[in-house]
Protein 1
Amino acid sequence: MTLLARLTALFKQGHAEPASPAYEDWRPLPDTPLRAAAVLIAVTDRPNHPEGPGVLMIHRPSHMRAHPGQAAFPGGKLDAGETPIEAALREAHEELGIDPAKVHVIGASDQYRTGTGYDITPVLAMIPPDLPLQPNPAEVAAWFEPPLGHVLDPAKHTVHAAEWNGRAGSYYEIMWGEHRIWGVTAGIIANLTKRMRWHG
C-alpha cells in the first residue's frame, strides 16, 4: 500500500463517524465572534525513510501579534469567498512557497474552535519530498519536519494545567528535539491522532 493510500484509508475510516467540533480547553466565551481559518497539515512522501514520512511545520516570528514564536502549521484566516481547502493551500504558498499544484489534498478534518476566537479547519494533504521551500520571513522564522509517527503518537502527548485570561484549563504539548509544539497546534494534532490511529 502506498503512503497516499494508507493516509487516505485511515483518514476516511477515522472520519466515518461525525464529531462535534473539537475545542481548545479554553472554550470561546459565548459572545466571542469566531473568525474562520484553515491550516495545512502537509505530510511529506517519505515511506522508506528510517523515521517514516514527515510533516511540515513552522515557527512563527517573535514579532507577530498572534502566537509569536510558536510552532504551527502554515495557515491563516479565510479570505472572502474562500473554502478552507483553498485558504490552506494559499497560506502554505504564501508562507513556504509550496506550489498548490504539488499538493494532494486528502481531506478537511474536524473544526477546532479556540479561546482566542478562531474556528480552524485542518486540511490533511501529501506533498513530494524535498520540495524547494521559500519561507516568507514576515510570517516564518524557521521551518522543521518532525516525523508524522512521532507527532501522531499518543505517548508523546502530554497535558498541562494552566490559567489563561483568568480561566483554568489545560493544553497539550509535544516535544521533538528542541521544538516545542503546544496549545492550539498540539490540540489539533491530538484530535487528528484520535481520528486516524496511525499507530493502530
Note: The longest strand covers residues 35-44.
Protein 2
Amino acid sequence: MNVNFAERAHNHNWKLDPIVRSLLDTDFYKLLMLQFIWKNFPKIHVTSEVTNRTVSVRLSEHIATAMLVDQMEHVRGLRFRRSEIIWLAGNTFYGTRSIFEPAFLEWLERDFRLSDYKVTEHNGQIVVRFEGLWTEVTMWEVYGLALVSEMKTRAALSTLSELELDVLYAQAKTKLWEKMERLRAVPEVRISEFGTRRRHSFLWQEYVVEVMRMALGPSLSGTSNTFLAYKHDLEAMGTNAHELPMAMAALARDDEELHASQYRVLELWQKSYGGELLIMLPDTFGTTQFLAGAPDWVADWTGQRCDSKDPFVAGDEYVAWLTERGRDAKKKRLIASDGLDVGDILRLHDYFHGRIRFSAGWGTLLTNDFRGCHPRGETALEPISLVCKLMTVEGRPAVKLSDNARKSTGPAEEIERYRRVFGSVAVEGALVTV
C-alpha cells in the first residue's frame, strides 16, 4: 500500500477523504448482531451514546461539532452497494456459507437506515446520542467511535507541518514493524486485527492490516473490519458484544427473568449461528457468577472471549470450569481482547499454549499506537478510551456491571440492583486506558 501519509494528512479536508467510506467499514460482529436484532427484536426502541472515558482529554476543545455532524451526515447518506451485498451473500464466514439470510440482505440493501442523533457538548466533552429502532441505532456504534477518534487525530495532525508529519509517520511505521518482528519470532501465535473503533485513521488501519498480512502470514487470522476483509480477501472476524445481554436484561419483567436473561440471549443466538460463532462473552454482569449458574449446554459452546477481567485469571477460570463440566479445554477457544499490546499477546500465548486454543483480538494499541511518535513530544495523538453503550431499552435503563467496576455503566441504583440479582461483587480492576 503506497500512501503518502504526510501529504494525505496535510490535505485532510479533501472531500475525497471521508472518515467512513462504506457501510461495511464496521466490525463484522455488528452485522451478525444486526441480523439477530432484525430477526428477534425488530420493533424495540433504544438509545445509545458515545462518551469519552478519558475525561482529562477535553474533546470539545479539539473537535468542531459542525465538522463532526458533516461526517455523520455523510455516513447517513451511504447505502450498501450491490457488490457488497453479493459478497455478504456468497462468501464463507467461519466455514459457513449463507450465514446471512436472503430476506435480511434484501432488507439491508433496500430498507436499512441509520437513526436520528444529537451532538452536544458537556463538561468539555462531545456527547453523541442515538435514538430510534434498535435496528437503526446499533450500527452507529462503530461508525460513531471511528468518526470521533479520527476527528481527534485530524485535529492533532492539523498543527504539524508536512515535514513533521513525515517524521511522525516514519516513527510510527518503525514502531509497528518492531512489533511485527517480535511476533514473527513466534509463528504459532494467532492474532485478529480488532482496531476499527479507536483507530488513528482509516488509511492507517488499512496500512497496518497490509503490514500484518505481509509480516505475519498465517499468524494473522483476519480482521474485524468487514470492509477491509472484503477489499483485501481476508477472514472477517467477530461474534457478539455486551449490547445483546444488556438489552435482554433491560427487557426482563422481574428479578428472576433478569438473572435468566444472560442465558436466554445465548439460546436465541445459537438458533441463528453455530460453530466458531458460538463464542460467549460472560463478563457483562460478572464472569464468575455467569459460569457458576450456567446451564450445562453452555459448556458445549466453542469458546469464550474475555474482555474486562485479567485474561490470565479469566482463562484459568474458564479452563477449570470446562474441566469440571467434563469438557476438553484443548478443543475450546479463548480470545483475549482488552487493551492488549504485543508483550501481552506473547505472554498470554506462552501461558495458554497447549492448554486451550488461544488467540488475541488486537485493537487500539495496534491501529492507534502513536505514543512517543509526536515530533514535538506532545501527547495529542495518544489513544483515549472512547465507548458507545446502550443507555435505554424501551425506556428502561441499560446496565453493564463488567468484571472491572471502572467499566460499569448505568444509573447507580440500577447497578446496585443488578449486583444484588446477579451476585456480582464490585472489583475495581486496572485503570481503563483504551
Note: DSSP finds 17 helices and 13 strands in the chain.
Protein 3
Amino acid sequence: MNRIVVTEDIRRIGIENPVGCLISGLNVQSGTSELDEHVRELERRIDSNSEEILSREEVTAYHDVFEAVGHPGQEPAGEQLVRLVEQQGLNRHNNVVDAYNIASAERGMGLGMHDVTALSGDVHVRRASGGERILPIFHDKPVTATAGDVLHEVDGQILGILGPVDRDAGAYRVTEETEQALLLSLGNKETSEADNRAACRRTYDLICETCPNATLTFLDVDTIDAADADSAVVSP
C-alpha cells in the first residue's frame, strides 16, 4: 500500500488535499490509562467552549462537501464527535481508537481509521456509482450509497462512505487484533495538506504513547480521471 488514488471529480467537490498514512507496529489494548490526561484536557476544552472548534472554517467547510454530494443536512463526523464529547464525555474504546478520537475532536475534523492488516492494494477515493453498501460501525443495518457519494476502498473493499451517513465500515474497525491501520484525513477546501498531515501526525504521536514501536508512513497521492477509475480498482 503505497498511494492514494483520487478521481478528479473528488477534488471538484472540495476534497482538495487528501492525506493518508499507514501506522504499523500497533499494540492495541483496552483499559490503558496513558491517554487519560489528554482525554481530560479535551473534555475541559470542549465543555468550556465547543464553538471555538466548531466555528472554524476548516470545520464548517465539511458541510459544503456534503451539500456538493447531495446531502445538505448531514452532520459531519468530526462535528458529531465534538457534540458527543460535549454531552457525555469521550467514549473510550482502546488506546489506538482513543488516540484517533482525541485528534479528531481537538480539530473537529473527520478522520477515517481502518484495520488494513490483511489488505495491500492502493487506496481509492471515488464517487459512488450507487448501490454500494457497508455496515457502518455501531449500526445494525447496512447503508447503501447513492450515486455521487464519496467512497474510499482498498482491494475493492469499501472502508468508508461519506453520504447518507459519514461512517467507517465495521468490518475494518480497529480491534486488539489490528497490527496495521490506515488513517485518512480527506479534509475539505479549507484544510490544507499541512492541516491534514498535522491531524495524522497528532494521532500518531498519541498512539506512540502506548505503542512506542509504531511507525508512520505517509502515502503518495495521485489523481486520475473518473473515467479511468473502474479499471484502476481491483474487484473483490
Note: DSSP finds eight helices and twelve strands in the chain.
Protein 4
Amino acid sequence: MTLVICSIALTASLLTLFSGFGLGTLLLPAFAAFFPVDAAVAMTALVHFANNLFKLALLGRKADLSVTLRFGAPAVAASFLGARILLWLSDLPPLLEYSLAGHPAAVTPVKLLIAALMLSFAALEASPSLADISCDRRYLPAGGALSGFFGGLSGHQGAMRSVFLLRCGLTGEGFVATGVVVACLVDATRLIVYFRHFSSTGVGENASLLAAATACAFLGAWIGIRLLKKATIGAVRRAVALMLAVFAAALGSGLL
C-alpha cells in the first residue's frame, strides 16, 4: 500500500507541474482503494496542500496577483460549500447492499457521486482537445467558483482551473504559480471543513503514510521544476483516464 501510494504521489506531482492538474486526480483513487471515500478525499487534500505549499515556496513570487484575486476569491467561497456537501453525503446510509462471490458491497451516495466525477474527469483527461480548451478572462470569477466547488467536493479542481487560466496571457511559470496559489487557498479552506471529520475517518492514524506520500510529492515537484517547459503528456492522460474509468466503475458499484 505505501509503495503504491508513494509511487503515484511522486509521478503525479511531477506531471501536474506541466499540466496544472493531476496529483489529486491520481492520488484520490490510490487512497480510496485502501480507505473509505471520505477519508481518501481528506488524505488526498492533506498531501495536495503540503505539496502546493512546497511549490508555492519555489514559485509563488511568479503568480499574477490580479488573476489570483479574481479567480481565487470565488474559488475559496465555493470550496467551502463543496466540502460541506461531501461531509453531508458521507453521513447518508447506503442505497444498496449486496454480496458478490462472498465479498460484501455497499453502494452509497458519496461513492456514486465520486465515481461520477471520476468518470467525468476521466473523459476530460482522455480528450485530445483538452489542451485547446480555454475561456476568456471575463469568466474568471465563474471559473473560480466551479473549480473551487469541485475542489471542495472531490478534490478535482485542477483541470477546470487550467481551462480558465490558459487565456490570461501568463508566462509558463506565471501559469503554474498562479494555479498553485489558488490551489493552496482552496485546499486550506476545504481542510478546515474536513478537520472535524478526521478522527472518525482514521486520517490521524495514518500520519506516517501521509508523510511518506508528501515527501514523494515534494521530490516529484522538485524534479518537475527543473524540467519546467512545454511537455506532451497526451498518452499519460489517456492511460490515467482508463484507470480512472475502471476504478470509478468499481467504486460506483460498491465493490470498493
Note: Strands lie at 96-100, 103-107.
